[in-house]
Design a protein that fits this description.
The longest helix is centred in the N-terminal third of the chain and has 17 residues, at about 20-35. The protein is mostly helical and about 250 residues long. It has a domain at about 175-253. The chain contains 15 helices and no strands. It is globular and about 60 Å long.
Length: about 250
Amino acid sequence: MDEAKIEKLISLIFHFSSQDEVIKGLALLDKYILDCPDDMLLRLFRAHALLTIGKSEEARAEGEIAREEMPDNFYLHNILGNVYWCLNKNYMAQEAFERAIEIDPTDSKALSDYALFMVMERGVKLAHKAAENAVKNDAKNSDAWLALGIVQHRLHQLSLFESSIRRSLELNSSNSQARILLLKRLQQKGEKKQAMGLGKLMLENPETREAALELFIQARKKERIHHVVENSDYLKKLLDKKASDKKSWWNIF
């Protein structure tokens, strides 16, 4: 594949600003794969895009095909680690994440993803080391600071946790996971005005809406949210919905 096509795919898939752009990227990939079915780089791109839109089984199939021909591609192993994690295949996820950082022990993305997996599913010690290395290797990586913050929370280093989450948001103000964690921290500290302000902003984002509503539910403030939801039937139904995803960012607390 020529460089112009690769750059177009990277722009659509790796730097997407919406799910629609990822879907456009997938359409292009499908077209290119018909012409070049043996191009494993295309398979890697497709696995990444499928994972992004939640099609984990399809992403697994593409990633495993690519791995046969690209066994030493660290980013492919990192994608597979996230895929297996989404599929609750945690043993395989850990192997894939560890293989990624074995191939490239300096990549901040691989280190932060491994740290998140370890702190959520395994233990904090290895997660802490990986998160610190992620920040060390790329101090401008929002997800690296997010991972470090979660580890610090598990270690009951709450001031450091808050600083890391705020740093994550400074680097990427749209980081949904960091917003959710900061919201919970503000609630725990009793900073109701700031929590309510952030919660209102989060109601506008589908990725953070349920966490914001969960805040009001847990705080028993249902009566204080009606002016925010503005008679939206959808939002009102969510008031009684509890978070159930075991990987929910809300549930790390």
